Automatic annotation (TrEMBL):
<dbReference type="GO" id="GO:0005739">
    <property type="term" value="C:mitochondrion"/>
</dbReference>
<dbReference type="InterPro" id="IPR029063">
    <property type="entry name" value="SAM-dependent_MTases_sf"/>
</dbReference>
<dbReference type="Pfam" id="PF13847">
    <property type="entry name" value="Methyltransf_31"/>
</dbReference>
<dbReference type="InterPro" id="IPR004556">
    <property type="entry name" value="HemK-like"/>
</dbReference>
<protein>
    <submittedName>
        <fullName>S-adenosyl-L-methionine-dependent methyltransferase</fullName>
    </submittedName>
</protein>
<dbReference type="InterPro" id="IPR050320">
    <property type="entry name" value="N5-glutamine_MTase"/>
</dbReference>
<keyword id="KW-0489">Methyltransferase</keyword>
<dbReference type="GO" id="GO:0032259">
    <property type="term" value="P:methylation"/>
</dbReference>
<dbReference type="InterPro" id="IPR025714">
    <property type="entry name" value="Methyltranfer_dom"/>
</dbReference>
<dbReference type="GO" id="GO:0008276">
    <property type="term" value="F:protein methyltransferase activity"/>
</dbReference>
<keyword id="KW-0808">Transferase</keyword>
<feature type="domain" description="Methyltransferase">
    <location>
        <begin position="93"/>
        <end position="145"/>
    </location>
</feature>
<keyword id="KW-0949">S-adenosyl-L-methionine</keyword>
């Protein structure tokens, strides 16, 4: 049976890739039988969901459908952001990650920045994301504790589109020193073109950013423009879709009166807008 499924996998992915993935599935610590893993992959499920983990910098992040699988471009800018902050900041940072998913962004910052210098909060509308991010905080060793000499990350369920966000009862209160976000940014026409492996497995709430893909940037810019939302010298770092960087820059300069800069991803695409007041 395995050899038939393996032949089907080779037909789908090519011989080389199929052999590699077969090796990874055999080594996986998952309790799912190998034959079942192969069948799921043949059906088009993303490999990361089958292996149940994804490397993100030095971390191993647990992944579980339908929570968005962390992408290499997000890993790239988060590492760069940590390097910049490491050089420029001597103080403790209060960090808010909007649309936290697995918690990968704040957890990598907790890992890369000095112990006791990061107290991070993540917000997500999805209960599956909040429980996975909480699990990842524990697995990576950054669950909240009374020990302020350690970095910490805590996830909460809320919508940052809600006009009353962040409500007092939430346990997350401004001002913040750093806002990070990889918000949903797929436009309607792009959503219709998504490959089966994305559209059928990852949560549409994690992908669809409104008709032109920019709804969440308008919401973030309005939030950070509020009086007392940011500490002096605060930084806002948002990931953007291909071709969106100029529009997102404009949103932050007009709505929040911030100065902006663009970072490229490893494929030379304009991927991150950095805004400072
Ligand atoms: C593109 S995913 C990013 C996940 C993670 N930060 C990453 O980079 O892998 C966007 C996330 O935003 C969440 N989201 C969508 N609408 C939201 C809202 N109104 N408020 C809070 N989170 C939201 C989704 O559930 C999803 O987890």
């Amino acid at each position: 049976m395995t050899s038939v499924t393996l032949a089907l996998l080779s037909a789908r992915l090519g011989k080389r890739q199929a052999a590699l993935e077969y090796k990874w599935m055999k080594r996986a610590t998952s309790e799912v039988p190998l034959e079942r893993m192969l069948a799921r992959r043949v059906a088009g499920e993303p490999l990361q969901y089958i292996l149940a983990e994804q490397p993100f910098g030095p971390l191993t992040i647990k992944v579980k459908p339908p929570v968005l699988i962390p992408r290499p471009e997000t890993e790239h800018w988060t590492i760069r952001l940590a390097e910049v902050l490491n050089r420029s900041s001597a103080r403790t940072l209060s960090v808010l990650d909007l649309g936290t998913g697995t918690g990968c962004i704040p957890l990598l910052l907790c890992n890369m920045l000095p112990a006791g210098s990061v107290h991070a909060y993540g917000i997500d509308i999805s209960s599956e994301a909040v429980s996975l991010a909480t699990e990842n905080a524990a697995l990576c060793g950054f669950s909240p504790s009374h020990d302020i000499t350690r970095n910490s990350f805590q996830a909460f369920q809320a919508s940052f589109l809600d006009p009353s966000f962040p409500h007092i009862s939430l346990g997350v209160a401004p001002p913040f020193d750093l806002i990070t976000s990889n918000p949903p940014y797929i436009s309607w026409p792009e959503y219709m073109q998504l490959p089966h492996s994305v559209a059928s497995y990852e949560d549409p709430k994690a992908l669809f950013g409104g008709p032109d893909g920019l709804d969440f940037y308008h919401a973030i810019a309005k939030l950070v423009a509020r009086k007392d939302f940011l500490n002096p010298g605060a930084v806002v770092a948002v990931e953007v879709g291909d071709g969106q960087a100029a529009s997102v820059q404009r949103i932050f300069t007009t709505t929040a009166q911030m100065k902006t800069q663009i970072w490229l991803d490893p494929w030379q695409k304009k991927r991150t807008v950095i805004a400072r007041r």
